[in-house]
């Protein structure tokens, strides 16, 4: 703890003297802001962190006061190190005023500073003193995966067997091809939505259809919790299909 404080103190002074705020990466993906908004609502721990493809990492937190002069130096210092490291690194924070009348502070990690399967220790200090610790958290990058939703959801009615063939395309999942699972949302018109978990890949067969009914389907994805874990993605775009009246089977 004392080593943290002494090294952090020098880093804070360097950060404060620099007087510059790092701009966030430009290629964050179409779903990045939605992921941030969801974690701000659902995640209790601070700073909140996630990775989209294991080669990126963002940690952030929100404060209730607007920063009146966004170009001035940050009042916070973000420091981190891996357990086996003997030195700290600092991250220049990106600062953004939000539409919720809050200020969002974000650290975008450099690619060379991201490593899975090793504990990453994080400390956020308030003001100029390393004695004022705001947040402390230890994370594992591979347990904080937040994938994009599946795409190209396709539904085919197979008249010969009276079933729906549901398929989709997975999001970018480098290194995790065999470590993810999907959940399919099935909403037959006039019935309560039903969720079915599918662990057999990118295809799902829906049986026991009710003739003359519209079905609306969507799918989402997350790591399976073995080697990798994280958050459920957003639901994919919905697809609807009408089942012919001729079917005699009923939905169970």
UniProtKB/TrEMBL annotation:
Record's GO cellular component terms: external side of plasma membrane
Pfam hit, one: fn3
Record key words, sorted: Disulfide bond, Glycoprotein, Membrane, Receptor, Signal, Transmembrane, Transmembrane helix
GO molecular function, one term: cytokine receptor activity
Protein origin, superkingdom: Eukaryota
Cellular compartments annotated: Membrane
Domain Fibronectin type-III: 149-244
Membrane topology: Single-pass type I membrane protein
Signal sequence coordinates: 1-22
InterPro entries hit by this protein: FN3_dom, FN3_sf, Growth/epo_recpt_lig-bind, Ig-like_fold
Predominant location category: membrane
Protein's name according to its UniProt entry: Fibronectin type-III domain-containing protein
Organism for this UniProt entry: Micrurus carvalhoi
């Amino acid at each position: 703890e004392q080593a943290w404080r002494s090294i952090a103190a020098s880093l804070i002074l360097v950060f404060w003297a620099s007087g510059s705020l790092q701009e966030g990466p430009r290629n964050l993906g179409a779903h990045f802001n939605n992921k941030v908004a969801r974690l701000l609502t659902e995640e209790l721990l601070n700073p909140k962190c996630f990775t989209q493809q294991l080669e990126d990492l963002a940690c952030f937190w929100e404060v209730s006061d607007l920063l009146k002069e966004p170009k001035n130096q940050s009042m916070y210092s973000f420091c981190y190190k891996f357990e086996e490291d003997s030195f700290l690194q600092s991250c220049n924070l990106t600062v953004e005023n939000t539409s919720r009348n809050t200020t969002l502070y974000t650290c975008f990690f450099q690619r060379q500073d991201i490593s899975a399967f090793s504990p990453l220790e994080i400390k956020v200090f308030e003001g100029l003193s390393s004695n004022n610790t705001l947040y402390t958290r230890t994370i594992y990058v591979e347990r904080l995966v937040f994938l994009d939703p599946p795409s190209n959801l396709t539904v085919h009615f197979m008249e010969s067997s009276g079933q729906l063939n549901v398929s989709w395309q997975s999001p970018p999942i480098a290194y995790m091809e065999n470590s993810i699972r999907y959940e399919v949302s099935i909403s037959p018109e006039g019935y309560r939505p039903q969720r079915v978990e599918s662990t057999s890949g990118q295809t799902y067969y829906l049986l026991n259809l009710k003739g003359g009914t519209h079905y609306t389907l969507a799918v989402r994805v997350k790591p399976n919790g073995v080697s990798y874990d994280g958050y459920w993605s957003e639901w994919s775009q919905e697809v609807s299909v009408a089942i012919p009246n001729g079917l005699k089977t009923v939905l169970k």
